[in-house]
Amino acid sequence: MATSRRLSSARSDRLTPGRFARSATTARLAIGVTVTVCGVLWILLGSASLSWFGLSPIGLYRSIDQPPILLTLVGVWYTARGLIGNETDEALEQEEVEGVGEGGGA
Amino acid sequence: MTISGSEVARAHWLFGALFLVMVLEELGPPAIRSLSGRASLAFPVVFLLAGVSMWGAAVFGNTAIDAVVHSLWGDVLIAAGVLDLQRRRGRLHAAWGPLVLPVAIGLCGALFLAHSEGSPSKDLTALWHVLMGAVLVAAGIGGVVWVRRGHIQWLAAYGAPLAAFSILLLTFPRTG
Known about the structure:
The structure holds 2 protein chains of 2 kinds. Chain A is an all-alpha fold. Chain A contains 3 helices and no strands. Chain A is elongated and about 55 Å long. In chain A, 25% of the residues are buried. In chain B, 72% of the residues lie in helices and 0% in strands. Chain B has 6 helices and no strands. Chain B has helices at residues 5-27, 42-59, 64-88, 100-115, 124-149, 153-170. In chain B, helix 3 (64-88) runs antiparallel to helix 4 (100-115) and helix 5 (124-149) packs antiparallel against helix 6 (153-170).
């Protein structure tokens, strides 16, 4: 069983380990996928207005700094972070279960 | 030296993406990794970055009001970023500490409204500034209530206008 931990960030009050944490992961993934899909749709619908500025550093920056691409990148990052967080959580919970078992409970 | 409308729009888009990252990271469903006990520094870091950028915008502002408002934004964002950073690092224990961010956001919204030049009905960028100012003021009020009441329902009143602000930045019209 997961134990409560104290955080100093503003949202620490909202964190509840265990089942809520799992639903939070699902919600994060859903939001991430939604943002990504919106970005991809925006790219497809607005492809005529997108430009490619070349492979130089400035060109790459200018190519990426276009709203549909930025939105897609934010969505991909958020989805990836949710997936990585999920794996970390499973490892944490496994450690805690083993710890409680060995130590005779909290 | 002046900055073209296209470059101004690009700066807004990039900041919009950063702001969306910050809103999702801080106010979205909590990251599982947060259970490891470390406070997120997304808000103060983005505030400090934005504050420095605002000073840059003040230096290269095309008009006097541009320069004045951007420098004031820089002051508010850097002060709020530093205070919130210290709060999250456990160095600031004042009762008003959690109010710093929402109050700063509300102040930035008021400055957006002051920054708006031209008629919103005729000028698209003026309309965007009014909309951005309005959602920031709404977010500031929602944030203050959320901090005071502590109910998760008020988080939506804080987070939704901030997400709307990100989208407004990402759709900032390119002129000139």
